[in-house]
Give the backbone structure.
Amino acid sequence: MKPTKTDADALLPQLKITVRLMHNQEIAMGPGKAELLAAIRKTGSIMAAGKSMNMSYRRAWLLVDVMNRSFAEPLVHAAKGGRHGGGTVLTPMGEQVLQQYLKMVDAVNHSANAYLPLFSGMMANKQDAIPLEDEIPEQRTAG
């Protein structure tokens, strides 16, 4: 049997946390780069990985370049194409960074979720929420 949410649970806010590792003013690792690494691992290709994320090859390659420059060792190794085609793999460092990043994201989310009950009863009911400016109906004035 599925547990049911209480009224207080329904009024708890939702968290949206983005974890980014910065290096020299660049994002060395974040959710998009982690997704790209996982796609490269799955497809064996920067082009295919980018395409699976609706990203151009150039954009995917630039993200890989930032990651490779940001860590002590490259995260991705790309073999040049040719008669037998190229190929792209995560290096052992790439596998380790991806695994550790995902572990950290889980820990951050778990820790932050523990604080949500502090906001119990403080959130407005959906029907009581103040509408955004563009959702407020225009008022007509007699004139």
